[in-house]
Design goal:
Number of strands: 13
Strand order of the largest sheet: 3-4-7-8-9-10-12-13
Number of helices: 14
Largest sheet: 8 strands, parallel, barrel
Structural class: alpha/beta
Distance between the termini: 29 Å
CATH topology: TIM Barrel
Helix content: 25-40%
Radius of gyration: 19 Å
Length: 369
């Protein structure tokens, strides 16, 4: 029924401005009851970062930026929801228009620029839902006009530690000028050291006996060389972050894009199927460098069972998507879960992690004909 209703509504929604529809979606979800989270098949459960996930399918950051509809999103069947990105002080983000549908490619280009109501508003909403079920993560960033961006990440960490299961340190967004410079080895080392210290001190101060130790993950760009990846992975492992999110959107414009030149020329991060192969190869290359020493979240171009399962085979323990919601609707969540169960059979999802990382890193995806 979900799939049918979305197929009817999609032409109408896609005739409207993309950002307007996004706000409309959030408002509509807020009107729905929180509801009960239905249990998942135990075969889908995975452990990562010291957290038990009922299933490995998550919503990527960018949809529920202000933490307004977390419980309603769990009603769609997600195993976890990543909200944000959030920055310390409220900011409007980049000028509009800043979100574009590439309908022929079922992709998006966005240059939102961390539009956020700020950390205080987010914390207030999280306190109101305290005690409710569901694994929640928050994507954290830096204010556009900040004079100390590293401190912005510390501020977010101090405010959110103990409130959610993990924080994603986002230094790979292409939509805040200069942010990706923090992926440089020296900057990144300092950033992670300060964030982890802030997490540990806040956790200890708030009472380690009563709350889980919020994990720290790092989100990386698909637009990096293998030598850059080497440095990022080495820094993450040396600083002992709990995991990596691979990858963010891309500033590149793959030759396969079928949209017109006007859309291709829009600045911002491209997401959706056109970035699947590049993103998944970076994921596989990352897995080949770290093995199972830390869990990976695979994100970028997931829009069906085969692309989601390829993320697992490439080395991901968990999988996220967002852009596919725009084109396939919320029914995709359960389609992915049912597809995973068929893939697993009587086996174990954990056994499939990284199984084909070497082949995928070489561009051999092995999809069924």
């Amino acid at each position: 029924m979900q799939s049918f209703l979305f197929s009817v509504a999609r032409p109408v929604l896609h005739a409207m401005d993309a950002e307007f529809v996004h706000h409309l979606s959030i408002k509509s979800l807020k009107m729905l009851p929180k509801g009960k989270i239905e249990p998942d098949d135990p075969r889908l459960a995975v452990e990562a970062f010291g957290v038990r996930f009922p299933n490995p399918i998550g919503l990527a950051a960018g949809f529920d930026k202000q933490a307004e509809v977390i419980d309603q999103l769990f009603g769609w069947g997600f195993g976890f929801v990543e909200i944000g990105g959030v920055v310390p002080l409220a900011q409007s983000g980049n000028p509009k228009p800043r979100l574009f549908r590439l309908k022929q490619d079922e992709a998006l280009i966005n240059r939102m620029g961390f539009n956020s109501e700020g950390i205080e508003a987010m914390c207030a909403r999280l306190r109101k839902r305290k005690g409710r079920p569901g694994v929640v993560a928050i994507n954290i960033g830096a204010n556009k006009e900040s004079k100390d961006r590293l401190q912005d990440y510390v501020t977010c960490t101090e405010a959110l530690t103990g409130m959610v299961e993990f924080l994603t340190v986002n230094v790979s967004s292409p939509n805040t000028s200069g942010l990706r410079d923090l992926q440089g080895e020296a900057f990144l080392d300092d950033l992670l050291a300060r964030v982890l210290e802030a997490r540990d001190k806040t956790w200890a101060r708030n009472g380690s006996e009563s709350a889980a130790k919020t994990a720290i993950l790092l989100k990386i760009s698909p637009d990096i060389s293998l030598s850059d990846l080497d440095a990022i992975v080495a820094t993450a492992m040396r600083r002992r972050v709990e995991g990596l999110v691979v990858t963010n959107s891309t500033v590149s414009r793959p030759a396969m894009l079928r949209c017109g030149e006007t859309l291709k020329a829009e600045t911002g991060g491209l997401s959706g199927p056109p970035i699947f192969e590049m993103s998944t190869r970076v994921l596989a290359e990352t897995y080949l460098r770290i093995g199972k020493s830390m869990p990976l979240i695979g994100v970028g171009g997931v829009d069906d069972v085969e692309t989601a399962w390829a993320k697992i085979r490439a080395g991901a323990t968990l999988v996220e998507f967002y852009t596919a919601l725009v084109y396939k609707g919320p029914a995709l969540v359960n389609e992915l879960k049912q597809g995973f169960l068929q893939k697993i059979g009587d086996g174990n999802l954990m056994d499939a992690i990284g199984k084909d990382a070497t082949q995928i890193a070489a561009g051999e995806f092995g999809f069924p004909a």
